[in-house]
Amino acid sequence: MDDLLPKLLAFPPHPPPSIPLTDTQYDEGIKSHISTVKGMADSKLLLRTSSGDGVLDLINPSINTVPYAFTLLAIITAVHKGNKNVDAKGNLWKNMSDFVSNLDPRQIRYLGAELGQITDTIVEYARSSNQIAAAVTPVTNSLLNYDPTGGMLTSRHLLLVKLSLNSRQFFDAVPVLDKPILYFPTQKTPKSKLLCNMSSSPSTYITTDNGFTKKLKYQEVLEYFLCRGMIYAGLRDWKKAFQSLEDAVSFPTKEGAVSKMMIDAYKKWILVGLLRDGKAPTLPKVTGNGAAKVYHVIAKPYESLAQIFETGTASRLKAEADVGTAIWQQDCNLGLVLHVLAAYQKTQIRNLANIYTKMSIQEVHSATTSAETGFKLPSVHATETLVRSMIADGSLHATVSSGSSSPSILTFLPPGTLLSEAVFQNQLAISTVQVKALTDEIKHTDHALTHEKDYVKWLQKQKKGKVINIDQGISGPDMDWQNDDEDLMATGY
């Protein structure tokens, strides 16, 4: 062990040198270090000191990510082989969780396959112990640590949303789900890019060749958007659920083909749209004509329900929901439909602000009806309770004032929330950082797109026909995409 540790800790230099290593020096150093550690026999990595400490007890995964990863893999292999000299699963679980939570984001760029094996083992152990929920946080940490931007969609993202849905452990997956998807993985890493360059886009180091992800087909991308939308719906975050479902609904397909997942997403999208806006949503313009026609035919019951929600009475809406119970159950949308019924009266109350600035709770009671029962609430007090709950959860901008002898009065406030100067400045700073990061990614994507072979072919074709317009850039209306592979290109989403 005494001879082993210096080799394991040889890179990166610690403490860091006064003059930081250049990217080229770092790249050469870590590749040499990986080669050395990878060449060590598992038996050496499993050695212990006289006091009983193993390698993982002596090194820090945030500093020495490379030896920690290979030692973990050696232990995993030994456990699978039934080696009795290796600690039981309890310590291994803790070590794996610590690793994915504290790994160095620069070093891990060279260890995609190794990280994948460790992540798969975490999920395997969670499933074998019937504790799937326990795997959600480690997988989330793993994804964010090797790609803090979250801009690259990988097969691990799909794994995460499935784990989250199956375990109903929604909240712990949100840090990953909140990241906007800008790229889809390609196979090869650009030769001119060094993996250790921390200013590089994730598209330069997250590739199928590097082991960070498997190849994605369009069905898997659709499944991610659908599952993400369902998770947000489970969290009652209707705005994010709506956007994610819309990503699936408007996803481009060959010759207007529509998959079952797109139809499932459309049905949920209608219901979530009612919950978000209080009215039936309109398909985005980018939706293909063929897809739109299929949606309107197959999802007719949902569109009818949405139309009644917007223009019909509470009793009619309840009747329509009751008639379609078998449909909602078959589509696993009964829960959302029940939320829609509960939202009907709340929407009525919010819409009163378009007419009145203030009114008594008695008048609110008389002007609104519950679609859950088809009748008015049993008392004015019940209506006041509903109004106060809406104000408390932020869905109604209003105040309720009441006196000992006078009726309670509902006063509607202007839309929007008044922020203090400090809160406003803080939110502005956060938004500025987000916009800058997104702008940088857009610039990279724009550059990558203009160097794609399909775009170059189109450019040459236009040049021969002498109808080229340089200002069209990547958005030329007549671009002729020739690539019919199902694997996705690393173009900006």
Q: What does this entry look like structurally?
A:
Among the domains are: 4-210; 430-475. The protein is 55% helix and 2% strand. It has helices at 4-8, 23-38, 42-45, 55-58, 65-80, 89-102, 112-128, 136-146, 155-167, 174-177, 218-234, 238-249, 260-277, 289-298, 300-311, 314-323, 325-330, 334-351, 361-367, 380-392, 421-449, 453-465; strands at residues 358-360, 398-401, 409-412. Strand 2 and strand 3 form a beta hairpin. The two termini are 49 Å apart. Residues 467-493 have low confidence and may be disordered. InterPro entries: COP9_N (IPR055089), CSN3 (IPR050756).
User: How far is it from the N-terminal to the C-terminal residue, by CA?
Assistant: 49 Å
Portion in beta strands: under 5%
Q: Largest beta sheet, briefly?
A: 3 strands, antiparallel
Order of helices and strands: HHHHHHHHHHHHHHHHHHEHHEEHH
If strands are numbered along the chain, what order do they take across the biggest sheet? 1-3-2
Keywords: Cytoplasm
Domain COP9 signalosome complex subunit 3 N-terminal helical repeats: 53-288
Protein name: COP9 signalosome complex subunit
Pfam families: COP9_hel_rpt
In brief, what are we looking at here?
This protein has 493 residues and is an all-alpha fold. Among the domains are: 4-210; 430-475.
Topology:
Layout: H1 4-8, H2 23-38, H3 42-45, H4 55-58, H5 65-80, H6 89-102, H7 112-128, H8 136-146, H9 155-167, H10 174-177, H11 218-234, H12 238-249, H13 260-277, H14 289-298, H15 300-311, H16 314-323, H17 325-330, H18 334-351, E1 358-360, H19 361-367, H20 380-392, E2 398-401, E3 409-412, H21 421-449, H22 453-465
Antiparallel strand pairs: 1-3, 2-3
